[in-house]
Design goal:
The structure is a single chain. The protein has 304 residues and is mostly helical. It has helices at residues 9-37, 40-65, 77-90, 123-128, 131-146, 149-177, 183-226, 229-243, 248-254, 271-275, 282-296; strands at 68-70, 96-100, 107-110, 118-122. It has one domain (9-296). The longest helix has 44 residues, at 183-226. Its main location: membrane.
Length: 304
Amino acid sequence: MRSRFEPDRQLTTRMVVTMFLLGLVYVAFIAALIVLLKSVVLVVVIAAGLLAAQYWYSDRIALYAMRGRLVTAEEQPQLHGVIDRLCATADMPKPRVAVSEMDLPNAFATGRNADHAVVCVTTGLQRRLTAEELEGVLAHELSHVAHRDVAVITIASFLGVIAGLVVRFAFYSQLFGGRNRDQNTAVALVAVMAVSALVYALSFLLIRALSRYRELAADRAGAMLTAKPSALASALTKVSGDIARIPTQDLRTAQAFNAFFFTPALGPGTVVANLFSTHPSLERRLEALAEISAELGEPGGRTP
């Protein structure tokens, strides 16, 4: 899909390299499971089924988990109006529009391709942002769709999900079924847990590296499309500050989708979590937007 969003060759290269490396890890992971569990059919069927479910139904899964629902132009005229203008400016197909009834101020794009993409905003975000700030956030999310990195991050996150599930299954199987199991089976389960933990760690690092860069790329593309980087910077500052005041329980519910969010759902006192965040730091993003503002010669374009 071609659009007027500024292309990013570095993003494309990083996506290709990440998918290639994750593919190698995935093949090695499946091979190890087959050797350890000695069941080719079971492993392949489960892995293929979960991959297909995540790829084909990622939009529905994300909307369900975030309590989002598709909305019409009659229900949300302002939201649809902004997206209509941005899509016309970017010369790209309009994605479906959804709203999540959550106070958590955030937005995300999901879907396997442009024809099945969804852009979702929370009611908390709508209440807090001005029209220009909301436009900047939506331009950021639409750039994810235009750059196709939404589909890539969806597939990339699959391996970590599978590895995490296998670790949990093996752990509880060993915990609750140990007495009736021979030593060889117990050793195999421990080996499965070790391999899965290693795969999870590798996929975690690869996804974080890609995710951080894609957020900077989306900030730049969105800011260049609207020619208002200061509005996006203002939205970032406002949303990041308000997220810190959201109850921890609500943040934990949303953290599984951090890789897709406009800004991560991280509360105060999460220094260690920020080191492994799916997003660059707020300071890094504001610095990059300030550079774009200077590049465009935007009046009063210094970041807040």
